[in-house]
Design a protein that fits this description.
By secondary structure, this protein is an all-alpha fold. The protein is 76% helix and 2% strand. It is built from 9 helices and 2 strands; from the N terminus they run H-H-H-H-H-E-H-H-E-H-H. It starts with a helix and ends with a helix. The relative contact order is 0.11.
Length: 253
């Protein structure tokens, strides 16, 4: 017997527990990162950002796999992302390296936070029409990971944040600009986690976890730095390819 239509509508307006638990865990990690940065525990603050990234990656996939997507979940996820990948990374890098630069320092951190907000707003307005294979601009979790990886690497190597403030402001502003740019990045959303994969894929995943375990600060920062520059490099290669194609067309004519 089919459900009455009014019951179905009431359920569609409800709040699903499972995906929102992951979103709340990510929000908690982002809030903890802020508290840890204020207390000067920059390594813990950076690790919390990566935990928030994992939770952010899980909540959407869990919602799709369990058919529990909702408008509330999407809005809640966006608010949590602003805390974990906008405010928290900006505060971490400011407290670690930019406090000694006064207004210039907090302005550099604010650029990152503002660009994260703009990036999330643009993503929300284009979610129904954008090519899911690519992100327009660097995704805010990846930008936050770049900031967290840099700070974690610095604390691991014993750097004084104030001595690296020039690099810190370049990373902060650079990541912010990439977020609001039109540079395209692979989203990897075409990967089907429910489908079958060759055995070699599992071997590669175990190898990746082993490499990260060797020295997480170095490997994670290097990985996200490589991803951050992959967008501009890919854009330059595509521009050069189009230019060569146009030149060949002109010669043929």
């Amino acid at each position: 017997m089919a459900e009455p239509e009014h019951i179905h509508k009431q359920r569609s307006k409800g709040i699903y527990l499972l995906p929102n638990l992951f979103t709340t865990a990510g929000l908690f990690a982002g809030f903890y990162a802020i508290i840890a940065a204020v207390d000067g525990n920059f390594a813990n603050a950076s690790i919390a950002i990566f935990i928030a990234m994992i939770m952010d990656g899980l909540d959407g996939r869990v919602a799709r796999m369990t058919n529990t997507e909702s408008e509330f979940g999407a809005e809640y996820d966006s608010m949590a992302d602003m805390v974990s990948f906008g405010i928290a990374p900006a505060l971490i890098i400011h407290q670690w390296a930019l406090t000694s630069w006064g207004k210039i320092g907090w302005l550099g951190a604010f650029v990152f936070a503002a660009c994260a907000a703009l990036r999330l707003a643009r993503f929300n307005t284009q979610v129904g029409s954008a090519d899911k294979r690519y992100f327009q601009g660097l995704a805010s979790p990846a930008a936050a990971a770049l900031i967290a990886g840099f700070v974690w690497l610095g604390t691991d190597l014993g750097w004084e944040g104030t001595d690296k403030r020039l690099f810190a402001i370049i990373v902060s502003v650079g990541a912010g600009v990439l977020m609001v740019s039109n540079v395209r990045y692979h989203s990897f959303k075409e990967i089907d986690l429910r489908g079958k994969v060759p055995f070699i894929v599992l071997v590669a995943l175990m190898g990746a976890f082993a490499v990260i375990y060797l020295h997480p600060p170095v490997v994670l920062f290097a990985g996200f730095f490589a991803y951050a520059i992959s967008g501009p490099v890919l854009s330059l290669l595509q521009f050069q390819k189009r230019r060569n194609k146009d030149n060949n067309s002109d010669k043929a004519a």
